[in-house]
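Quick one: structure tokens for this chain, please?
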Amino acid sequence: MFNNASILITGGTGSFGHRYVSTLLNNYNLDRLVIYSRDELKQYDMSQKFDNRDIMRFFIGDVRDIERLTDAMRGIDIVIHAAALKQVPAAEYNPMECIKTNIHGAENIIKAALANNVDKVIALSTDKAANPINLYGATKLASDKLFIAANNISGGRTLFSVVRYGNVVGSRGSVVPFFQKLISENSNSIPVTHEDMTRFWITLQEGVDFVVNCISRMQGGEIFVPKIPSVKIMDLAMAMAPEIPVSIIGIRPGEKLHEVMCPSDDSHLTIEFDDYFVISPGIKFYSRDFDFSKSLLNEKGFKTTIDILGEHVESKEEARKITQAYCDLYASIEAEKLDCNVSIKPTHIGLSISLAETMANVHLIANAAKNTDNFLRLDMENSPYTDATFELLDHCKSIHAQTGIVLQAYLHRSMDDVHRLSASDFNVRICKGIYQESEQIAYQSETEISEHFFSLIQAVIKKSGYCAIATHDLTLVSKIESWVAENNIPKDQFEFQVLYGVPMEGRLESLAKKGYTVRIYVPFGSAWFDYSVRRLKENPKIISYVLKNFFKGK
């Protein structure tokens, strides 16, 4: 990809540019490396640092200058667009200057790249472009949209993609060198804007390596997002200067308390890979049709199941609204050609209000699944709704054969339910169950539940059903993996499913590499707090489970 290539970096004299240049020169045999920036002094200093590199060229120019950009890109194969005005408070007070550089500059990059038939352009974005509240974030979101849409203009000749990450440790303007300066000056206090403020962090080298890899894997139209930690600024200050008191100075203009990387509204477009996410384009490219779940580096993304957060609606009107949301979700999945299906909670579409109303609603959803040739799964809730959920299953399957259900291993009845389902083609997700149930109808001990879980999986597969194995228990996963291998169970008869965000110690990646189907269950929506509180009240044991996995992931 990079050997014998000509590369141009805008804003190449910054922290990122220095490290990127060093990485490229040390690892590849480039034909030409062009640094395009406004500051002649920084260019001079950089030329002295790399004075033995005769392949380097320095262009003084501004991304606002389309003619100069066009001249600079002649003969260029790859463009890395890092130039930007990125100080949040400065952008709030000087909005037009930020717009001219970040939006008009992006437009100029696109025009110059198209005029010179550049092969690939990748633009650096920011977490502040996700659900932006400040002008800087808004300009970068607009910039991102411009680069994604540019793939329609290019007709596939020039590819445009975006990389989004958080704060770069040690870069200019980063809080880390600022704290270090205060510490070296024996400051009386360390200023922190808010005690709860968090930020995503990535090292400079990690950022550079990620961009290098994304250039190789890009197909055009993606937003690449690395999996990076979020850190409380208060913890950072206390770790760097435990002996110096912290002073709270208040949130600056345009700042968020917590940034996000992948907005919930983009969840249906987001594909998870081993160490990063891809937000696939929300628009259709008429010149080409790519599977964004598979990168050019042959990294296969996990399949997904989407669920809209919530349950136990309080009115028929609310149930109908959720029903329409699910129908719209199927349409979006089809439009974006995502390898994704849908799971619904019956009480979320009215089961706690009226079975007849729920029948009408699930009828609409089943038709939406049928019309898009997609799969529908009915989730299983606590025991008062079990029989009614089976009635809904029968109704759905009369409309659309690709309908499945969930069985819970802690219920005594679940094995009988397997036998009932096996009378016809059936698709079952087996989970342990998380509601609080009495010992008359449910196993209480973890050992009993795990044993029943394993027995149910064996029964489903032996009866030729398709089994979705939903567990985060690594011991169980190993046991199941051994059993299917010993019995030569075809890999297309089952899949492993896990909840998005639960750490699995690399087991998911390992299973995927072995050829097993791995599906990530992704709940999304604004009702997460009420939903979570309700579940915690139903079963307080969840608290210890959540805490255990939280610290496991640190």
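The mean pLDDT is 87.
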